[in-house]
Design brief:
single chain; 243 residues; alpha+beta; six-stranded antiparallel sheet; 9 strands; 35% helix
């Protein structure tokens, strides 16, 4: 079986109508899932990479960026023309505007060890229009780090200043405390039990989201592909050093 065969087969078969259906499902349900996106062999390679990385770091939480992912398989996926095409098509169809060049902001988050609680239940908006979440390692027992999302709570802001105001309200300690109190089965919060090898897509910029905690001895590893910063050309953003 060739590398990334499952992923490339599904991606290559997507018609414009299929991509439109994906966008409609994200609008309706907040998230889209493509099951078995990765073949077992591809997932195993990524899991081995995660195991080596966290062992090297003393089994503590780590975040690796795209230039640190050589040999993981995630670098190959991020550079795949078929994968890039999904994002540009989804952006054009879902947002109704021309898609920019596909340049991912890519992160591999590996939560484990004593610091897991510091990286959990932090509700936030992404800075990018579309987010793809690819679970690599998810605990089978105990606290599994379920994905929590309050879908599509805002539109794409016309000005970076309005985006900052949204984030300031959300980052407020009181807002975070209220959202955390609602997390266990709260109305309007969707709980997603992630499955390794599935691909999840959502409007990261528009949706409030986070992850639940995991047990200290467990590992929750997820690859994130962020695409299209609506404020990439903002003068204010550059002046604030966030460009």
């Amino acid at each position: 079986m060739s590398y990334l065969s499952n992923a490339k087969y599904w991606l290559s078969a997507l018609s414009d109508r299929d991509v439109r259906d994906v966008a409609l499902q994200i609008d309706k349900d907040g998230i889209f899932c493509s099951p078995n996106f990765l073949a077992a062999e591809d997932l195993s390679q990524m899991q081995n990479f995660v195991a080596s990385a966290i062992t090297r770091e003393g089994r503590q939480t780590i975040s690796l960026k795209s230039d640190e992912l050589a040999g993981s398989g995630l670098d190959d996926l991020g550079n795949s023309p078929e994968f890039k095409a999904l994002f540009s098509r989804l952006y054009s169809i879902g947002l109704g505007r021309p898609a920019p060049d596909v340049k991912f902001y890519q992160i591999l988050r590996c939560l484990t060890g004593k610091s897991v609680t510091e990286h959990s239940l932090i509700f936030h908006y992404d800075s990018y229009a579309i987010t793809a979440l690819l679970p690599i390692e998810i605990p089978k027992f105990g606290k599994r780090g379920d994905f929590l999302i309050i879908p599509n709570t805002r539109g794409i802001r016309s000005n970076y200043l309005f985006n900052l105001a949204d984030k300031a309200i959300l980052d407020n300690a009181l807002t975070q405390r209220i959202l955390r109190s609602r997390a266990p089965g709260g109305k309007g919060i969707k709980h997603v039990s992630l499955v390794p090898g599935n691909l999840y897509l959502f409007w990261g910029y528009r949706s409030i989201h986070t992850n639940e905690p995991v047990d200290e001895g467990a590992v929750r590893a997820t690859a994130l592909f962020h695409y299209a910063d609506p404020h990439a050309d903002s003068y204010l953003k550059r002046q604030l050093g966030r460009g």
